[in-house]
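Problem 12. The chain below contains 255 residues. Write out its predicted structure in token notation.
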Amino acid sequence: MRLIDSHCHLDAEEFDADREAVAERAEAAGVAAQIVPATTAASWPKLREVCAARPGLHPAYGLHPVFLDAHHPADLDRLDEWITRERPCAIGECGLDYFIDTLDRDAQAHYFDGQLALAVKHGLPVIVHARRAVDAVIQAIRRAGEVRGVVHSFAGSPEQARQLWERGFLLGLGGPVTYARANRLRRLAATMPLQHLLLETDAPDQPDAQIRGQRNEPARLPSIAEAIATLRGEPVEEIAAATADNARRLFALAD
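Solution.
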């Protein structure tokens, strides 16, 4: 199988001690490419270096809503310049987080709307974080106009999923789908149109059920593919091939 991890934070400090070994394990497991999204402007240079160090690592640059305190208004202008110079595969990780009460929602919207506008300007997809904020994310996407992308670690309703598909968005599913009690998410994985699905690990976060409580890494992506294949009653090779094709189309990756 040749898999694509559509969301992995390989630049995170959790991988500083053994990043090369982590990348080698991913390749040995059949992970042919990884999309590595940013969180803050300060992280962009390191992310660029990590992705330049070996083939198959594709950077995305953005401003994550959870790290709101690290962002500055000028960061949107810096992001515009960075995208023009670096030509990443996507903008992100961006979005809205209504799970953490202390995050100012107006400030989150300012940065999210700004990044959606940059996505339209540069013709790039967005990688969206939407924790307990899927409706607000959908509204922002509608306001932005012709924008495409993926809502990663999707945990919304079937109706919210349908609205995103109608806008041309894909859904990223990862470790949470492997947990037996994730009934709604597992039903979605079993029935959703395959052309709208991406696989992800979100490593080092969101470990699958087999490594619960441990550091996650991109080599775990086959376990997610296998879980979804079992839920759908389809060969895992078909899930791997279809989701890899979806990722290549969305992020304009070479085969």
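Discussion. The mean pLDDT is 98. Students who got a different answer should revisit the alignment rule from Section 12.3.
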